[in-house]
Amino acid sequence: MEHTYFITGFPGFIATKLLEALRHKYPSSQFYLLTLKQERKIAEQKLKDCDKNTVLLEGDITKEGLGLPDYLRREIAEKITHCIHLAALYDLTAAFSPSYSCNVLGTEHVIKFVKGCKNIKRFCYFSTAYVSGNEKGKIVESCLSEPAGFRNYYEQTKYEAERMVRMYIDELPITIIRPGIIVGDSKTGVTIKFDGPYFMMRFLRRLSALPIPYIGRTTSKIHLVPVDFIVNASIFLMHDKRGESKTYHLLSPSSPNIHDAYTLICRELIDKKPSWHLPRSIADRMLSISFISKWLGVPRETLSYFSHEAEYDTSQLVQDLEGTGIACPPFEEYVPVLVRYYKENAADASLKRY
Predict the structure, then answer these.
(1) Domain limits at 92?
(2) Which of 61, 76, 125, 156 could form a disulfide with 106 if both were Cys (CB 3.0 to 4.6 A apart)?
(3) Backbone angles phi, psi at 174, to 5 degrees
(4) Per-residue pLDDT tens for 302-326?
(5) Domain Thioester reductase (TE), which positions (predicted)?
(6) This prediction's pTM
């Protein structure tokens, strides 16, 4: 047996994709997957073709001991070589209390578990690039500076959680992953949720019969990252020695600006080009009206990412992936695939997130 993995957040999108890739790369490894009680049936369905080396554990990171029986937790702690902590409340509209409970207290409980894993080789923690909050200018991978403010409780609690993880970076073999905005597979378009840039697609389809506006005027970039790049880069960095005690911005060194990305999506989706500018202040007031926001399919909270004047450093990522063949493809190469998948599945209610 090559490795023994403990993965939180199953059957989430990244957890599911990571499991598939790890089982392919390390077929004789064992996997313990932590899932919530209410998600057990979905998790079991996704594991129907898995062998006995994959074990589903019903638990909850917000509870002491991860909601697992003491004997079971002690038993698996003796075996674990790699812990991948993905479970989090990924919701820009969530209130503080549930965000703090899941993202901060949950991470504290996972760290406590990992500290008891005697054979641990790597603790891979999934943070987010947006722990930078509303900071402007260059955001480096190697440090975590407290920003002047946050745009939502998701950013704030993920910042608090990463700060906690970094406290143990000299005690545990840690790799911190900070993805940008995750989208579907760059080759198939497959995703399990239509959020982030997919809100933009829903908005464009709603207004397709009208002259299409740009939302505000900005030179900001949008940091979209296909899930297959996230998976491939993370697997390499969590197993290679060079990834230990480091933090990585998992996004493209050449992320497009919002204007260009929006134009590309518009052309692919409705075969039109935006022709005028809607001031962001007006868009903000419109989306503050609940029924308009719901009809357009765009949460008001997403607007702040349309004018985010931050530059995310990826020098450590590029250096450590050199020679591996792993690189984030340019947005213009995979946007047709994302849009095609959206068109084919836009009516699927299970994919909608707003």
Answers:
(1) 4-179
(2) 61
(3) -105, 140
(4) 888 877 889 999 999 999 999 999 9
(5) 7-233
(6) 0.96
